[in-house]
Write a sequence for this structure.
């Protein structure tokens, strides 16, 4: 999966925006203002950081050498997917969905209602 395909996939999700809060080199995807994915724009090889449960992150890292604790993030809750290390696009999509759903589940009732109305 390339960056543009990943970007298109994320932006097709309900309530998602893209921002550059950490400067021009890191693209962040948010649902209702809460981050669920981050990818550097200045890297030759695509990397994506996604949120997941600590247990799922341990499992993913044990099963795939191309998945590790996310750089500059809480490594218990965030993993970085190194796409040039053989991570299947299907797994990236599945984990992107998990990250999005995890963040949505943690939204306030007000934000969840607002998201439902979109």
């Amino acid at each position: 999966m390339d960056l543009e395909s990943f970007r298109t996939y994320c932006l097709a999700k309900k309530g998602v925006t893209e921002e550059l809060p950490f400067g021009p080199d890191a693209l962040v995807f948010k649902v209702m203002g809460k981050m669920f994915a981050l990818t550097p724009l200045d890297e030759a090889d695509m990397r994506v950081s996604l949120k997941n449960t600590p247990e799922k992150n341990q499992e993913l890292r044990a099963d795939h050498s191309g998945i590790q604790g996310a750089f500059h993030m809480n490594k218990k809750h965030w993993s970085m997917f190194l796409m040039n290390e053989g991570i299947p696009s299907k797994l990236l999509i599945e984990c992107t969905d998990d990250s999005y759903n995890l963040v949505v589940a943690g939204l306030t009732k007000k934000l969840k209602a607002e998201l439902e109305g979109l």
User: Anything to note?
Assistant: The longest helix spans residues 89-105. The chain has one domain: 3-106. The beta strands are 16-19, 26-31, 34-40, 47-51, 67-69, 78-82. Residues 3-106 form a domain with the Aspartate Aminotransferase, domain 1 fold (CATH 3.90.1150.30).
